[in-house]
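Researcher: Next sequence.
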Amino acid sequence: MREYKPVKLLSKETASKIAAGEVIERPASVVRELLDNSIDAGASQIIVEIEEGGISTIRVSDDGCGMTREDLELCTHTHSTSKIEEAEDLLHLRSLGFRGEALSSVQAVSSLEITSTREGPAAWKLSLGKISPARLNKGTTVEVKNLFENFPARKKFLKRPQYEASQCRQTFVEKALPHYNIEMRYIADGINKLILPAHSSLKERCLTAMGFKEPEELFYEINQEGDGFCFTAVLGSPAVVRSDKRNIYIFVNGRRINEYGLVQAVCYASEGYFPNGGFPAAFVFLNVEPERVDFNIHPAKREAKFEDYKEIHHSLSSSISSFYRQKTVSDLLKESYEPEYTPDLGFEKKEFEAAELNQSYSSGLKETYWPGRTSAYWPASPIKQIETSAPAYGTSAAAHKVPAPPQDIPKSDFKFLGQFCGTFIAVEKNNALYIIDQHAAHERILFEDLKASLGPSQELLIPYRIETESDKDDEIIRLNLSELQKAGFSINEEKKGLWIIRAVPIRWHGTEKDLKEDLAGAGKDPAGLMHHILASSACRTACKDGDIIDPVSAYNIAVKTFALPEPLCPHGRPLYFIIDRTELFKRIKRI
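Model: Next structure:
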């Protein structure tokens, strides 16, 4: 029989640590709570500084309204707050914090020091439970040191400083996005990592904070109002495609929440507009009347209950769906499209000058029949003429000899039809229509080229420094070290958690950040690390959806697609689908 133990009241110290554990899980939790206080204080400038991932030091400084000596005496007591006075106030919350648990929880698991002033430079400092005079021009500075030093049960579950720093940065970004009118700065180990000036719109703040590679012109801001709520959504166009939902953010009254239903609303609304089952980059900033939403259901306020959930869900989904529908129709109805650049497709192609071509060739390929096969060719150009001159616009083709095909265009067993929707290549083959996904096909072609060219390497002018986030990441690299070195990566373990890359394969494309993400992204399949790295490089280099590519390159993609060992991209997606003659006849009700 189990030993009998009587019921006892926990000591105040033990109880406070347990309560703190519900609010403070890791350094990022401290950053979250302190940023909430700074924003609620009306700050126009906030600086977050961390050392060793926030485990050693977290310092948050603001120019908000500050506190008096009397405020400092009470602020670290459990359930002490300036934001509510009675239970009914929970129904009218307009602040980020309201429970009065943050500072008391932080103090329970760290060394806490607070300096604050209402009217600087005279200020007050709270340290080790004592208050003394201090100097501070404006606002409040909170310094947290040695997190979980007195709570080893929680400290042993913290990860490496690099990982904890990344979590602190993510929290900083999540707080910065909705509060775009506040100047914010994030500093890690003395280095400015992210500086966000005060912005004039949510779109500006999102693009600056997230550091997207796509140009600003591909992002849009839409607004909608409903009964008791309104929202602004910053949306990437269908040309801004993501492979997962990580770039879908939902904010409610200035807080990011984990709301699966609203994320799904965004996904459903954008379904069909992104190729290969891709997802949008979307930031939804929802404002709901305080009486109609409850945040007091989660210790970190990461969840919420809505009074009018169905109306909000429907409004969000229909508004985003309407945006993508109108955007797609608008793009398709454009009379002309002048690409700012021609993507580098990696093919040997003729340097045709489209501006000098006759108007009759503006549509691209001209169909012709060569002995023994059906194919196509790019019409003669002034740069390298097949015939003496090209047919004039409106002149009968019968009045001219059929030119021979250019020598560098490979033979094929299909009839090339062209590119459409800036995403697909159409060909006729075996009495059927083949629709080729230009990005997936080009990605697989480049992937095969990469595999065939591994070995030779190029030295980096400045070596890459890859800091791993866990022992598991190190183990994966060690497991694949020999294969990486044979491929052309010069990689050495400088110390625990730090790898130095001095050379990369000649055909590999990417940045230090790309390689770090590739090395960390193979966690589910450690033995497939090399495949993952090559696939990611090919994906980055391949032509993208929306790229208008010249007909010769499109034709070459089609030829090489049918020569691949299997019709799948390196990530397992199909390269094309087929509509045969019977299916086409069914579609137009001929059968």
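Model: The first strand starts at residue 45 and ends at 51. The first helix runs from residue 12 to 23.
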